């Protein structure tokens, strides 16, 4: 990396938010660098969430978050169609289990209206059971939210980062910012990959945003890592959960949901636990027991089937209950903080908002006329046709007929393609996020060794293939 280069803008953090901002900035003539501490894009909070495309029906009306979630819903929905990010429009049903919760439904419907969402309807218990017959006994009523949808968070992050790079942004991975030294005309970021300079810095560092903010002399917020743990059930359970079953929110949060996943499983979660350790993405016995006790009430039959995986993500919670987005034109510094539990949905709208705020500065944000088309992402969701079931594709390229991961039906062709892509995976976990390999019920027991060999050969199955991908 040349240390003499000064980018017009450096975006710190290649999660969904930073990638969306880098993509938007790279749509202009500005030179853009996207810096990521980890070895891959999308390896922070953006990889471990409940992966719902939210309508924003339950956001706090009047907040920036409410506006940007609603806008992000439309922007990401349209972008998903352009790029092939898997989306499944299942809708959601919020279920009341107590008289108090039933009494709260009209207020929630009104809140949805105040957020500009008009589609919610209150339904009686018979309708609740008609829609979700396997729900546990005792449901009293429900509120429908037809627009809530499933989306692939992994592909979303990768598509945005790929688009940014294809538009000309420079991506630097394994580049953790340790210090920022603002000076005349530019800031020098001291990173684990050397010094990087930029005229403007955008802080989209998620759980690390407060530490980076302090480097610019601010002490305006503290990030509290709020852990959310989730259980994933075997694919056999998918027919039991035709849509997203939400809890009535309380002062303690949104509660535990039961939802299909975009990969054909069912999940229960998340928990909500404030921690101090910003790396604590391990799951816990307490979290498992809590989800078991809650989930067995929601859908006892589900718990007759196997839990095949569990995972946890950390929300970047801050003291305020709204996003904290601020432009400091004097320092040429942008803070994008507190993107706690809706950033997957709102990421593209946050980018649009940041571009709007930068409009009055010395940055020339005129869109470029020569933009490449957005990338077309491989489909790893269950909604569309996957390569293993596409006879024409297999006939044209037999690698799509060679299954590597039998649980998730991932083929050698998809693994090869991942390594040949604009942002190839750095490790097994990155390969899993791009293909679903090792993500099934055996968790890599059967395909782990083969996948590791493919990782070492960068997806190539034989010497000819090695030559082709290198
Ligand atoms: C349990 C859970 C469930 C959720 N469910 C949903 C949902 O259903 N729908 C929804 O819309 N949202 C959901 N969210 C929220 C959503 O996942 C987040 O808002 C979003 O992923 C935040 O993206 P980000 O880019 O801000 O953060 P991240 O993805 O964490 O990205 C920040 C990046 O910055 C990097 N970084 C940090 N410090 C530095 C540094 N010093 N130098 C360089 N890089 C650095 C990190 O490595 C990281 O990759 C959920 C979150 C959780 C935890």
UniProtKB/TrEMBL annotation:
Listed InterPro entries: BFD-like_2Fe2S-bd_dom, BFD-like_2Fe2S-bd_dom_sf, FAD-dep_OxRdtase, FAD/NAD-bd_sf, G3P_Oxidase/Oxidoreductase
Q: Which SUPFAM superfamilies match?
A: FAD-linked reductases, C-terminal domain, FAD/NAD(P)-binding domain
Domain FAD dependent oxidoreductase: start-end pairs = 8-354
Q: Which residues form the BFD-like [2Fe-2S]-binding domain?
A: 403-456
Record's superkingdom? Answer: Bacteria
Q: What is this protein called?
A: FAD/NAD(P)-binding oxidoreductase
Source organism phylogeny: Bacteria, Bacillati, Actinomycetota, Actinomycetes, Mycobacteriales
């Amino acid at each position: 990396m040349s240390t003499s280069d000064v980018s017009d803008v450096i975006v710190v953090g290649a999660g969904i938010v930073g990638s969306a901002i880098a993509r938007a900035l790279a749509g202009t003539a500005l030179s853009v660098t996207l810096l990521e501490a980890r070895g891959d894009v999308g390896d922070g909070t953006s990889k471990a969430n409940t992966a719902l495309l939210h309508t924003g029906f339950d956001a706090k009306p009047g907040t920036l978050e409410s506006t940007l979630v609603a806008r992000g819903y439309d922007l990401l929905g349209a972008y998903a169609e352009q790029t092939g990010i898997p989306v499944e429009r299942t809708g959601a049903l919020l279920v009341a289990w107590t008289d108090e919760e039933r009494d709260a439904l009209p207020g929630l419907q009104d809140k949805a209206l105040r957020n500009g969402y008009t589609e919610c309807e209150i339904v009686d218990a018979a309708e609740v059971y008609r829609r979700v017959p396997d729900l546990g006994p005792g449901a009293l009523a429900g509120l429908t939210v037809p627009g809530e949808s499933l989306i692939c968070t992994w592909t979303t992050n990768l598509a945005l980062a790929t688009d940014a790079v294809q538009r000309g942004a420079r991506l630097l991975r394994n580049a953790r910012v340790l210090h920022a030294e603002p000076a005349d005309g530019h800031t020098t970021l001291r990173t684990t990959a050397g010094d990087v300079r930029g005229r403007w810095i955008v802080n989209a560092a998620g759980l690390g945003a407060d530490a980076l903010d302090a480097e610019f002399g601010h002490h305006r917020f503290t990030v509290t890592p709020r852990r959310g743990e989730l259980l994933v059930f075997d694919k056999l359970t998918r027919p039991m959960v035709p849509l997203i079953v939400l809890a009535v929110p309380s002062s303690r949060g949104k509660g535990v949901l039961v939802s299909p996943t975009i990969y054909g499983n069912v999940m229960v979660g998340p928990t909500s636990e404030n921690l101090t350790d910003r790396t604590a993405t391990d799951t816990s016995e307490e979290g498992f027991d809590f989800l078991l006790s809650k989930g067995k009430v929601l859908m006892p039959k589900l718990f007759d089937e196997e839990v095949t995986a569990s995972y946890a993500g950390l929300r970047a919670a801050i003291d305020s209950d709204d996003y904290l987005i601020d432009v400091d034109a004097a320092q040429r510094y942008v803070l994008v903080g507190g993107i706690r539990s809706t950033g997957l949905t709102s990421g593209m709208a946050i980018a649009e908002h940041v571009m709007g705020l930068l409009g009055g500065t010395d940055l020339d944000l005129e869109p470029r006329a020569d933009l490449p088309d957005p990338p077309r992402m491989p489909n790893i969701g269950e909604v569309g046709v996957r390569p293993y079931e596409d006879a024409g594709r297999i006939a044209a390229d037999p690698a799509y007929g060679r299954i590597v991961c039998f649980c998730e039906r991932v083929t050698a062709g998809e693994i090869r393609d991942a390594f040949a892509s604009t942002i190839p995976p750095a490790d097994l976990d990155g390969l899993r996020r791009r293909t679903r390999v090792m993500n099934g019920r055996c968790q890599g027991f059967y395909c782990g060794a083969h996948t590791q060999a493919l990782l070492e050969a960068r997806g190539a199955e034989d010497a000819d293939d090695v030559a082709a991908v290198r």
